[in-house]
Specification:
2 copies of one chain form a homodimer.
Chain A (H helix, E strand, L loop, with lengths): L26 E5 L3 E5 L21 H10 L2 E5 L4 E3 L7 E7 L1 E7 L5 E8 L3 E2 L12 E4 L3 E7 H10 L1 H27 L2 H18 L6 E3 L4 H8 L3 H13 L3 E4 L2 E4 L2 H8 L5
Antiparallel strand pairs in A: 1-2, 3-10, 4-9, 5-8, 5-10, 6-7, 6-9, 11-13, 12-13
Helix pairs in contact in A: 2-3, 4-7, 5-6
Chain A binds a DNA duplex (30 and 30 nucleotides) through helix 6.
DNA sequence: CGCGAGCTTGATGCCGATCAATGCATGTGG
DNA sequence: CCACATGCATTGATCGGCATCAAGCTCGCG
């Protein structure tokens, strides 16, 4: 579990300890009868180190403080537990604060499809708005924490703040664009291209969050990757092995080191041979 | 081209003439200098026969009249022309009034993927909100007409009317849910299931619009269907032929008659053999 | 009438699925 | 501490569905 992590903290594993960006921002609170104590779960967008990635992008101090009143609670989800499930009544969106999730839809006959993996700063539950019920399962792939955003409050507040409204619309639109990208992948790419695209996307998102872009720990199984990419787990495994043979990656179970980022990138676009 | 169409108008081809629901609602307008004339292009959500399918769902008389001020123009798009293209600046959404569109994304190396087909009442352009630029091409598959919805105005008005806000959010959310369904299809279904799902979906949407659910005219080529379903055109063609041999369909080029809707449906779910 | 875009159908081959066995890491109880 | 169980990953052998390549066919249209 222990990862090389220098004093400056290029991090591979968020659980290895609090880096400068991912610390939980414990806040000292005055509690009359007990003096000062540490309150690790103070919910506050205004203090959140993810606010540049999440719903509050581009909002003013004032607006952030109003957001704090809306996003009043957090929820902890243990690894393997569901945040919500198909058919659950929809009432809130969730912003991932720490941890990692997968979203799955399934067909009548039990086949299921991972539709996405979500990490810190990303919004979960958008699927529920249309029908007042969730249409997919959201499952924590590691112990996680989310901020609860009551949808009614979000509606109300975004009628007041056009910045919030706009950012929310942007997030939904980008989800649609992302989905279109996955369709392109599923509809027209071959196994190697799919896995390469997946890895490039993952490292990019991790980099945005201050993690290393050359080493990562997969939070999901080969089967989950396969489900997302429309492949069987054996194919995912074989493709990892091939990438290793080709000198693109070093693969040790879920620990991946990227040795040739350009080579990987070139697989995604059409620069083969 | 001529289709059986009774007086009550179970319609197969919207171009065969105006049924009760699809008529263009010409409005008599007072024009001072000329007396009464026919104005076929009066833009008005309040009169539109698609208002139960489109953005104005559930809105009051007052609100509809405000909507009329927002949706002030229409645009005609000839078959084969693009409504917008990847990279175009985003300024408006478009509601399909008549006709049929496809949306395509493409990868660096030129492969492209049809991400959806849109018909009357459906909203186009949602992809552009996130980045202020369109991320896909939208191409008319037949002569079409769209209502132009300036996005700024929609934002403004939906801050005022929570019903409009809510309906807009619903539409975006449903697009996300639809995309997840396509991912499931692309990631886990076989050719026959894909084509069956496609046909079931298409007929359902046509039925909602007052068309026959047992006969339809495809507005897209085999290649476009294949692109949408992640198959080659030959496979689409063979699968159509197989469905015909199995007595599920009658296929004559783009004219499809559904002979065994239940059988088709059972292919979509997992009730094979 | 003849052209061309789109559709159908056949023959063949390949990519990834499937089936099966082994390897590896972690955890548990004796 | 070892024996064993369990879950996940790797690797090999074989199979099958769909892609690919290659003719014809159909129909609308100039």
């Amino acid at each position: 579990m222990s990862q090389k992590r220098g004093r400056e903290g290029i991090r591979v594993d968020p659980h290895a300890g609090g880096g400068p960006m991912m610390s939980d921002n414990p806040v000292k609170m005055e509690v009359p009868s007990q003096g000062i104590r540490l309150e690790p779960f103070k919910v506050a967008c205004s203090n959140c180190n993810l606010r540049e990635l999440c719903l509050p992008v581009g909002m003013s101090r004032d607006q952030l403080e109003r957001l704090d009143t809306m996003v009043a609670t957090r929820r902890t989800v243990a690894r393997g537990d569901t945040l919500f499930r198909v058919g659950d009544a929809f009432s809130s969106l969730y912003a991932v604060r720490t941890g990692f999730f997968k979203s799955c839809v399934s067909s009548e006959d039990g086949r299921d499809q991972v539709t996405g993996f979500q990490m810190a700063g990303e919004l979960l539950g958008l699927d529920g708005i249309g029908s007042e019920r969730h249409t997919c399962d959201s499952i924590a792939l590691e112990d996680s924490q989310v901020c609860v955003i009551p949808y009614q409050d979000l509606e109300t507040l975004s009628r007041e703040f056009s910045d919030l409204q706009r950012q929310f619309h942007r997030i939904m639109s980008r989800e649609i664009v992302r989905d279109h990208g996955v369709m392109l992948l599923l509809g027209s790419m071959r196994a190697e291209e799919r896995l390469a695209a997946f890895l490039v996307n993952l490292t990019q998102r991790l980099k945005t969050r201050g993690f290393s872009e050359s080493a990562l720990i997969l939070r999901m199984t080969r089967e989950e990757i396969g489900s997302y990419l429309g492949l069987k787990l054996e194919t995912v495994s074989r493709t990892f092995s091939k990438f290793q043979d080709d000198g693109l990656l070093e693969v040790k179970q879920r620990h991946i080191r990227i040795l040739d980022a350009a080579g990987l990138q070139s697989l995604v676009n059409g620069t083969p041979c």
